[in-house]
Amino acid sequence: MSSTATRRPPPTATRASTQVREQPAVRARRPTPYLLLLPAVAILLLGLGYPVYWQIVTSLQEYGLAQQFGQPPTFVGLENYARIFTADSLWTVVVRSIVFCLVNAFVTVALGLGFALLMRAVGRTVRITIQVSLLLAWAMPMVAAVTVWKWLFGWRTGVINWLLVRLGFDGFAGHNWLAQPLSFFFVATVIIVWMSVPFVALSVFAGLTQVPDEVLEAARLDGANGRQMLRHILLPMVRPVLSIVLLLQIIWDLRVFAQIRLLQDSGAPVSETNLLGNFIFELGIGRQDFAGAAAVSIFVLLLTIALSWPYVRSLMKEQA
Amino acid sequence: MTAVTSAPVPVAGAARPTRRRAPTAAGVRRRAVRFALGVVGISAAAVWAFPVYWMVMSAFTPAARLRSATPSSLPTSPTMHSFTAVIGGSSSPAALRMSLAVTLVTVLAVLAFAFLAALAVSRYRFSGRRSFILAVLFIQMLPAEGLFIAQYKMLSSVGLLNSVIGVSVLYTATIVPFTVWMLRGFVAGVPVELEEAAMVDGLSRSKAFLRITLPLLAPGLVASGVYAFLQAWNEFTVALVTLPAESAQTLSLWLRSFLAASANRGVDWSQVMAASALLAVPVIVFFLIVQNRMASGLVSGAVKG
Fold it and tell me: CATH code for B90-267?
């Protein structure tokens, strides 16, 4: 690989610096950039590309117990999709996942926006206190966070039950939050929102700091009150950030798997608390229905790509 | 608007004479609002930090005290007993070794692969560059939950379930895309002219790269490395699927089974919290180093509009 001379400019060229910035390098037909990409592309093909390919193929095949024991799989077209997508059990899970995802995403963004506005309104000391506690919550590893919350919501010695009883809600003495699907999802929402708000709050706050003080000062001199400034200046100016974090949050909350799985460990009704990821896990690892699991996985991947489209486009715009 | 209401706001550079004036009604109200917001802010911060505080506090509290009906909010008679019990436990050293091995292999592979790819996309124009970036951005969004069945089958068919190398390959593939995106910005930030100037001064290309460009990229490499560390260290889903054997557990899986095992004989929450703290503390430390970079990387396009 002779990379020595690849990017050396022609000796006579006296380039203006702007030209350099737009063209960081010679439009080379040389192999160097491809060689540099090779390891990354290879690992992506191996770790993600092949699994995607396998899923597409498997989702079109009969892959039952006989195939587990070495019989060659037979091509069955879209039969697996038909089988899975006509079953009520899948649609229950899909609807549940979408509702859960939207509730979590909107609550997270609303609270995050609240935190961001609060950080802007308060003094330095309070702001730094808020930032530190948000960072602590953000930094908690997911498994550790779920474990701690499980204890906070614990039915016997949990702080939350204790607090509720102290506040006069005697019904919560020994209340098991994880036994009923609805309160199970409430706990899951609390955990996920707690973990996700810091990212939203700090991103939106970064967006808010871009609003020039002069603009707000001018508005104030013109007689705008706090609410008017919020509605007509601050919110419109952070709208791009808000829509991006909302989109990311929707994409991330649609894939919630681990938190649910960990909460289910405490004896929750599994089939009534499964989300899409858990459904795939149970279908594939649990019941060894790899063809069905592959079909649902492809559905999830397509959904993710469709949802990611606006986000990726906004990043590409910046990249130019 | 009269000057009275706008007076409390300091106007930078304005040649307004600063006079002390008697507190007006509006000024008092503004101060009251500010105070109230401060109280709200501190309470919100306390609520958000409480789980982390509670984890650390409980880890230092004797288990017997945690079982009492009234939780105490301060560590009375703190003890290291839970920590020593957890560290001395039979399963934790193996899990720690596994986590360290997987994380180390992943971080090194991610850094090498992503760095080379970032060089390619930010220093060269070539056909396929745009598609590569587009692919990277989409791949970064793909959920593990949509792939883990196939990854499980892939590793089991080549006998790499429960192995460091198998799970590291999957982690590397998952983490490389975002790291390429992150490093791309750093590489683009180092002007090519610097390197060229060093070459004009007589350094060879590789020496110019090592002495000029690489040191300037160090912060980016550190940030990317820490990002990869956090991802690999915290990962749960893929590990759950591809490391089913108890002997091959990473710390995340170990913490889960630690709680499950403890549940059989009445959960020792003090030890469980100590175990959680052991998993969390390195992460929190590293996280504080890079959080700025991560937040700005994810939404940089949006903030600029």
Answer: 1.10.3720.10
